[in-house]
Amino acid sequence: MSAPGPAAGQGARGARVIRSRTAVLPVADVDTDQIVPARFLTTTSREGLGRALFADWRYDAAGAPRPDFFLNRPEAAGCGILVAGPNFGCGSSREHAAWALLDAGIRAVISTSIADIFFSNALKNGLVPVRADAATCEWLLAHGGAEVEVDVAQGVIRLPDGRESGFVLDPFARHCLVQGVDEFGYLLSRLPDIETWENTRPE
Amino acid sequence: MTALSLFEKIWRAHEVVPETAEAPAILYVDLHLTHEVTSPQAFALLAARGVRLRRPGRTLATLDHATPTESRQVFGGMPIRMESAARQIAALEQNAAASGIELFGLRDARRGIVHVIGPELGLTQPGMTIVCGDSHTSTHGAFGTLAFGIGSTEVAHVFATQCLLQRKPKTLAVDIAGRLPAGTSAKDLVLALIGKIGVAGGAGQAIEYRGPAIRALSMEERMTVCNMSIEAGARAGMIAPDETTFEYLRGRPRAPQGAAWKRALARWQELPGDPGCAFDRGIAFDAATVEPMISYGTNPGMVIPVNGRLPAAGDDSFHKALRYMGFEPGEAIAGKPVDLVFLGSCTNARLSDLRAAAAMLRGRRIAERVRMLVVPGSQQVKRAAEAEGLHHVFTEAGAEWRESGCSMCVGINGDTAGPGRYVVSTSNRNFEGRQGQGARTLLASPATAAAAAVTGRVTDPREFAA
């Protein structure tokens, strides 16, 4: 079976190489309730969720930024790569978590493990989920603000000293990310197969 | 011929296009459930593409997540207090009408939590693939289905194609020997299991729960176990159908009837895994060792027996969790004061759960300091409980008797606990702020929750046993 070609109008989402300083959150099992607290889920839109990102860790009860939270530090401004502890994005299926990260300028998330539903949601939106090895994650967590490269096409993270660390990404997911192909368009293109299958399916 | 597992049989029967190295499988979805919180963006995506909802008969919509549980907001003519919730409800009403989806609206007698109504209507049937924009979709696996939660973009994929792009997960057999001791429940079993394998222990895998302890469970108990599969990080949790499953489904309004029932039954009986079928991984667990469990931390893997002590030491996450909870390492959890008790959610708000709690509360009053919310899993559960007089038991004990919905499990609809409050909850997640900003959740069974309501403290429910 041939891999799908780029969908019209989706090219802007292609992500070959993401080069950025990192923002690090050295916490394990960050659940999607932390990424976007439930009270922000009463929106009917995907836009503007950046303000909800980590809201209960980021702001105090009066709504003032907590200066010690990583995203509130001056050096976090402009960071496009988030490095977090293991099992990032566990819990609720809310896609709002991926939307909020993107809205806040995050384009890749690196962890030793990323929960399945969040991982899938990230890919659907062009946010690059990177499951990296323990040694690389340990180094990244200890060196917040490092300028690193996530090379999606090659499946490699490049550290500032030139070291490279490979990561595994499903070939289809990589193809979609690099070419800016959208999975929805691909699935729609297979409707004839779906129709045939439905018509020949036993009871 | 290869011996196939339950998972493998269902997967193969729904593979429209098998997976290859280059592309994931296209998997057909038999039943799609949807609700007001994760659907609006999916409908918007559909509209943006200019595509129609393809098989409206395979989607059922209900209102649960943001929906009020106060009777006067549901039936009393009082407007829905939260404007944002009212907007989401109105949006689903419009979207469902425009696309021809059946919706159980606010005052519909069949409305309820999405994972409670599917089974009770008989819509959830063995061998199906079932998805919903909600992670607790794993609940339906109790019927021998492959059921899992999806994001809103995937909801749109299902709307438009009735299919999903999926990589096949690995399989994990969880063999549970023995029998649950008296005074323990399916909730205690699954909490103990998550405590053992951890919140990422099931990641990337579809779990099949097997063994005599599972076979001895009722369908409602099996749903509690499968419901929490996602709390172990699993893609899905499932149990092979048997006589218990078939008896539960027989005669349900949306289950096959007459000759169709006989044909369905013959198909369903073929679903259990073949002898000697392989799994990628296996875990053994002994139900006889289970005690009433309670969570002490901020994820469902942080659990101990109610009569036990917190671990004396742990990693950074452990200490962070204890700071949030206001607990000390090594201390006993029994006797900790409780402010609120929540009996509800897709984990534990079916009739048997309400009965278990009512048995503890009958003839008793909840403690002065405690507020208790009882939120039936569906309007049908509510009526069935009322027919048995359970609502009198709850209200006479001093608890609030509500309309069905997700309520304080997710805290979107305004049912929340205040900062620092301790909530003993029959729900599924004790994440920071899950039940309100700063609220502290202790997950437990309905019996343990009811015992805490009476004493105002974390209490071993076996102390209440007759």
Features of the shown structure:
heterodimer; A: 203 residues; alpha/beta; Aconitase, domain 4; seven-stranded mixed β-sheet; globular; B: 466 residues; Aconitase, domain 3; Aconitase, Domain 2; five-stranded parallel β-sheet; 19 strands; 32% helix; 17% strand
Structure notes:
The complex is a heterodimer of chains A (203) and B (466). With 203 residues, chain A is of the alpha/beta class. Chain A has one domain: Aconitase, domain 4, CATH 3.20.19. Helix content of chain A is 30%, strand content 16%. Chain A has eight helices and seven strands, in the order E-H-H-E-H-E-H-E-H-E-E-E-H-H-H. Chain B is of the alpha/beta class and 466 residues long. Chain B has three domains: 161 residues, Aconitase, domain 3, CATH 3.30.499; 120 residues, Aconitase, Domain 2, CATH 3.40.1060; 168 residues, Aconitase, domain 3 (2-Layer Sandwich), CATH 3.30.499.10. Helices cover 32% and strands 17% of the residues of chain B. Chain B is built from 16 helices and 19 strands. In chain B, strands 5-4-3-6-7 form a five-stranded parallel β-sheet. A five-stranded parallel β-sheet of chain B has the order 17-16-15-18-19, covered by helices on one side. In chain B, helix 2 links the parallel strand 3 and strand 4. Chain B is globular, with a radius of gyration of 21 Å. At the A-B interface, helix 4, helix 6, helix 7 and helix 8 of A face helix 2, helix 4, helix 6, strand 8 and helix 12 of B.
